[in-house]
Amino acid sequence: MIMMTNRQWLLTGAGVLALAMLPLFLPNFWLANILGRAMVYGIVALSLTFLAHYGGFISLAQTMLAGVAGYSVAMMAPTAIPLGPLAMPYGFAIPLAVLAATLAGALVGLIAVNTREIYLLMITLALAVGFSLFAQSNTQWFRGYEGIRNIVGPEVFGMPFRTHIVFYYVALIMAVLMYLLVLYVVRTPFGLALQAIRDSARRTAAIGFNVALHRIAAFALAGFIAGWGGVLITFYNIGITPSSIGLWPTVAVLVMAVIGGLGHPLGAFLGALIYAVMDTFASTIIGHDRFNTLIGLVFLTIVLLSPDGVWGMGQRLTRGRRRATAKNTGTAENAAGEH
After folding, report:
1. How far is CA 52 from CA 9, 47, 49, 97, 263, in A?
2. Which end of the chain is more exposed for a tag (fewer CB within 10 A), N or C?
3. Integer Rg of the chain from CA
4. What per-residue confidence (pLDDT) applies to 327?
5. How far apart are CA 173 and CA 49, in angstroms?
6. 126-164 pLDDT per residue, tens
7. In angstroms, rounded to a whole number, what is the distance separating the alpha carbons of residues 33 and 284?
8. Which residues on adjacent β-strands are paired with residue 156?
9. What was the pLDDT predicted at 299?
10. For the segment 202-213, what is each residue's pLDDT rounded down to a tens digit?
């Protein structure tokens, strides 16, 4: 369980304040296409990190759940092309889309509740690929290959959602809220029980907890988190297609979470930022066709050098520096005592 000290809360607040000030110094391209993009994809990766670290199971269905929210908001969007029969204001469409992702998450949990490890991976991967293929073949609701376009999002204080500054701040606010939500949940009785189930499901069941219900609830909460990411990703892409929720986006979210580190919620955003930077600039340097090779090499390198990702590497370096400082301080004190 993560216990935030006063110092860590201060560092978190300082980090959020620094991110809020970045629009004063960075161009719009960085705000929307690098940082904003990293935050919305990081929200989806956060849902995977939550399940993996606190629940003890890795789900490959998180992109699917984001897609459920994305398609839901697209089918209900008042600006959609083509306009669907369920069109309504964004103020109603967005909460309903997140609700759909939450219910879909509970359904995934119900299906996969009795599976573990590789079997859980295969079931959630099958669900993700199956949903993508269904969206690809369905033309009445999901519009097949073309998908649904012109999902521009609501106006915020009279400004279009696609305005760089608006998108950046909305992405930042939602990323912070989802991050704080995870930190809060894992300290509640539900979160503590979930971590106990991760450590020993049999012992937790023996003291009276409903293991299956807690796991389903965890998947539902992960669906809620992924749903917000899916809505924002749909606004970022100005629409949604089956290719945006297919096999590669599913693997990409897993790569983000693992690169950043599954041991802490911040790892999801670190991994998403690294991925966004590489995806934006590496393709122009080594060519788009070789990007997958590059991301694969980076993934393998980080996993081999630091199995707990960039966050874990930073934690080890910090602890090493503290031990060295403490050792030097102790040596100096001993030397002063001898004199």
Report:
1. 24, 9, 5, 24, 9
2. C
3. 21
4. 67
5. 19
6. 999 999 999 999 988 899 889 999 999 999 988 999 899
7. 15
8. 159
9. 79
10. 999 999 999 999
CB burial readout 109-146, b (16+ within 10 A) else e? bebbbeeeeeebbebbbebbbebbeebbeeeeebbeee
First vs last C-alpha separation in the chain:
45
Q: At what angle do helices 90-112 and 211-237 cross, to 10 degrees?
A: 140
pLDDT of residue 301: 83
State both tokens at 226: 């992924």
d(CA 27, CA 197): 46
Q: Which two tokens stand for residue 107?
A: 């359904």
Cα within 13 Å of Cα(106), Cβ side? 8
DSSP code at position 238: T
Residues 6+ apart with CB under 8 A from 59: 48, 51, 52, 108, 112, 120, 124, 219, 222
* pLDDT score recorded for residue 337: 58
Residue in the structure block whose two tokens are 């450590």: 199
Of 190, 259, 209, the closest CA to residue 41 belongs to 259
Distances (CA, A) of 128 to 50, 64, 133, 328: 18, 5, 9, 53
- Angle between the N-to-C axes of helices 90-112 and 62-76, in degrees from 0 to 180, rounded to the nearest 10: 150
Q: Compute φ and ψ for 306, nearest 5 degrees.
A: -145, 90
Residue 291 token pair: 């990007």
- The answer to whether 245 and 66 are in contact (CB under 8 A) is yes
